[in-house]
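Hi R.,

Here's the chain you asked about this morning:
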Amino acid sequence: MIGRRERNKAANRAAILAAAQEVFAEHGYAATSVRDISRRTDLASGTFYNYFPDKDAIFEALVRDAGEEARRRVRTARRSAGTAQEFVESGYRAFFEFIVEDPERFAFMRRNLETIGHRFGQTVLPAGTEELAEDLRTAIDAGHMPPVDVEYCAGAMIAVGLELGARLAERDPPDVEGATRFASSLFLGALAMSVR
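And here is the predicted structure, written out as tokens:
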């Protein structure tokens, strides 16, 4: 059982994160201030600093939380695959669905793609690449995937997913199945070529 104080702290943090996501989505990272975020909540103006030291920290928290949830969903999809096609398709589909399923998070990601890439690409991407490499090794050992250079394949698959995800975010309406088909065809064709 958590006490009332802990519930209030969790609710305040969630309110600040939700407000920040909205403001960053509307104005972008550069044009957003802590004051803009605080004004979007019903909390006292100084409450923000009880949870985050500055704008960078809350932006990073939003990116980190989204990245962790995306990686969790993608890994779950990949780990249930029994063939190379299922591995590739289910992983990409889970990632692309995650991008578009929450309109507020989608707007945040769409508006701040460049900032996310520049500020967090070197910290967020390695975790996803390492997890994909581990999943590829497991799938190869289980006979679900042909032997490939795991590091090259993981790096290329992540890069394609991120780039197509950015393009998907720019489309109206977003085409999850089209992006999934394209990415899957690309990699399944490359895997087929590597077996020859």
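One quick note: The domain at 61-195 is CATH 1.10.357.10 (Tetracycline Repressor; domain 2).

Cheers,
M.
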